[in-house]
Amino acid sequence: MKFKSIYSALIITSLLISHCAFSQISSSSKMTIDFQAHRGGRGLMPENTIPAMLAVMDNKLVTTLEMDLAVTKDKQVVVSHDPILNPLITTKPDGTFIKANEFNDNIIYQMNYEQLQKFDVGLKPHPVFPAQKKLAVFIPTLHDLIDSVETKGNRIGRKMYYNIEIKSVNGKDIVEHPVPNEFVELVVNLILKKNITSRTSIQSFDLRPLQVLHQKYPTIQTAYLVEGKETGNVQLKLDQLGFTPTIYSPEFKYVTKEVVDYCHAQHMKIIPWTVNTKAEMDALIAMGVDGLITDYPNLLGN
After folding, report:
1. CATH T-level fold of 36-81+139-299
2. By the 8 A CB rule, do 69 and 79 touch?
3. How far apart are CA 246 and CA 64, in angstroms?
4. What was the pLDDT predicted at 194?
C-alpha cells in the first residue's frame, strides 16, 4: 500500500509538472503572437486617429498599430483608409454630412492638408461600431501620428510596431493617389527620417508598391494583403506578386492549417485580417498564425 501511495504521488507530481510546462509553453507561444490594432482599434475609437493609437497603447498585448495611408495635393502623407472622405465617418466643416452625390467632391489627393484638417472624422456615430467612443478629431499626418506614438512610448517604456498600408489602385493613379514609385518614396523617406524602419512593415493589396519596395528597399518588411477565395492558393498569389514577402496577410475566413503551414514552409509569416471574435482568434492561433489584425483589441487575453 505504501508503495502504491508513493507511486500514485509520483504520477500526480509528474502530471502537475507536465501541466505547468505545457502552460508555460502555451503562454510563451501566445506572447509571440503579433496582435495588431486595426486602424487603431476602430471598434473602440475613431479609426486611424491619434487618440485611437495612443489609447490602444495601454493594452499591453497589442504589439502593432495598423493603419492606412493617403496623400494630399500638397504631398502630405496622411492616415486615412479611404482616398475619398468616407460618408460613414466624416462631418463637413459646416457641420453637415457628406451626401451621396457629393462623394467624388472629396478626394483627398485633390485637397491641400490645411483644407483636409477642417473635416471631422470622430463625431458621427458609426453604424457598424456602436460602442466606438465619439470625439472631435481630424485626419492626422503620418508624421504627427508617429511623433505622438513615439513620445508616449518613451514615456511609458514601450516600443510599438507599425503596419502601414499604401492605399492605391491600378487605374486611379494621379486622380486618387500618386503613382506607386512616388507613393513609396514619400512613405519610406518618412519612416527613415523617424528611425522606425526596423519596427515597420508596409502592406498593400496593390502589387505595384510592394514590387517597388522589393526592388528599391529590399530590407523593408513587406506584407501582401489578399482577399477572396484565391487567398488559399498561396503559390498562385506569390506568382502574381513575383517575390516572397515578409508577411502573407489574408482575409481570415479563408485561412486553414494547410495555408498556415504552406506560408511557414515559404519562410513567410501569416497575419490574417480582420479577426473580430474571440472564437475566431482562438481558432487561428491554434492553427499557428503569427499574428492577428482586429478591430477589437479589448478581446485579446479574455
Report:
1. TIM Barrel (3.20.20)
2. yes
3. 15
4. 98
